Amino acid sequence: MRLTTHIGEYEIDQIILDLESNVNVLMKHTWELMGKKKLQWSLIQVRMENQQNIFAMGRLPGATLDIERVNTTVDFEVTEIVDES
Description:
The protein starts with a strand and ends with a strand. The chain has one helix at about 30-35; strands spanning about 1-5, 10-15, 25, 55-65, 70-80. The relative contact order is 0.27. The chain has one domain (about 1-80): Cathepsin D, subunit A, domain 1, CATH 2.40.70. Helices cover about 5% and strands about 50% of the residues.
């Protein structure tokens, strides 16, 4: 399912929802475009299905999320893929 969403005042087109995911992931590049809001320290370890290495930078807590006019508040783990293989 691909939708348009707003995280705070930042609009993102073509997001992909994974309703079976255990964590909400936001890529480092998107976080930077949003103005590098302050992150909280996080113990979480994230691994992709193909075992690609991911660096979890921290948690973006309490982000206001609007998906097709449905509003909620979520925490995101800001991540960066560090293994190009």
